[in-house]
Amino acid sequence: MKQLICLLSLWHALCCFADKRPNIVWIIPDDMSANFSCYGEKAIETPHLDRLVEQGVCFTQAHVTAPVCSTCRSALITGMYQTSIGAHHHRSGRGTKKIHLPSHIKLVPQLFQEAGYYTTISSWPIRKGRFGKTDYNFEWDKSVYNGTDWADRKEGQPFFAQIHTPGGKLRGKDASGWEKVSSSAEKKLGSRTPVDKVTLPPYYPNHPDILRDWAAYLDSVRMTDVMVGEVIDRLEKEGIRENTLVIFMTDHGISHARGKQFLYDEGTHVPLVISGPGIEAGSTRTDVVEHIDISAISLAAAGIKIPEHMQARDILADDYSPRKAVFSARDRCDETVDHIRSVRTESFKYIRNFLPERPYLQPCRYKDAKSILMALRDWNVQGKLNNTQVLLFRETRPSEELYDLSKDPHEITNLASHPEYKTKLKEMRRRLNRWMRRTNDQGRTPESPEKYDSDMEVYLQKNRQNADQTQLKTLEKNIAQMKQWASEGK
Q1: φ, ψ of residue 153 in degrees (nearest 5)
Q2: Overall fold of domain 330-448
Q3: What's the pTM?
Q4: Distance between CA atoms of 89 and 267, rounded to whole angstroms?
């Protein structure tokens, strides 16, 4: 009898502990840089994220380890560099050649489940039974998610919820997409972003299509901000906001010529705002952090032990020692083969191009279908680009790039060949070499022709079923080009 009473007391204590553990909510839009008013954007206002910043901590130097959806998300959900787990090629493992994680690596939602949490993944607004974006490059078990809505959890059960939204994808690829998101913003907020308020980075020309696209992109930021407000409102109405850790972060930067898929800050720098129990309100962090770190943050907040193999770090821990540098990697994106690595400190960025004989803007069906890329190529042919903008169209790349971000935040002047930066170049080169060795960067070995063909067959099959045969021909041509360059040693 005494043992039974002790067991009941222990069970009651565990239940009470579970009741007090915080809920964890991730809000992760697609394709969006830090173009929010709390990050200094002047053309628009984003009051809901601003309010979240006032209630929590804003990280000014958060960077993704991969500037494209599937590789970034594969890293995030494991707390591991995508290069360490063989998930570094975008949309890989989709064909007959599958990718399997090592047996000791568990997905973050599985760790939450094992600790008694209810796990969900959804879009917004939440639709019952409709999963949000996963896009992982390896085989995984969908049972790691209990559902799509935390309302379905048991009474008093804490939850781990991921909310994934289109973000910058709302603007589409051409004028029809721009009009759709801008008209939605006008209907919801009473106005659309005027084109004359747009200030482009200096490496993009003031082409009418590029200006209009950017205005529509800013409207997608505004609509994303509305979504953030709706999520917070629901938490408040349910009386659980104070015990919920909310993490807002995008999956990588804006989809543009020099953004998504590249390792310049436009592609890697993302907003990161955290608010909830134990977070100092209105605080700012300027140290460099990686997007995978939110995996460790979340586990720690729930009292779950962070696995020893996990490369994410609890950057909110009292004993946390700030990172001195963060690392990013770009490999094959769809059919386009590439191999780039970077290391970034607070003041410098070093990029290594392992395929320097290839052009900056390699053929890529996905990006080349965008009106902004067409506009850039058109003005390049017409000679309307200035000396900075024309750099995008170089037919080869330097093997190394070095930028002093304190003087050159847009990463325009490559200092790798400047004698006065020789010491800094060596230091950054060593940092990257050590990271690739220490983390077992699997991108050091080229993707096999069999794996490439396996994934390309999936793309080709989808396009064969599509009425637009132009896209199929473009894809076939690009694949042939990749194979030709590879045979030539480029």
Answers
A1: -75, 165
A2: Arylsulfatase, C-terminal domain (3.30.1120)
A3: 0.95
A4: 16
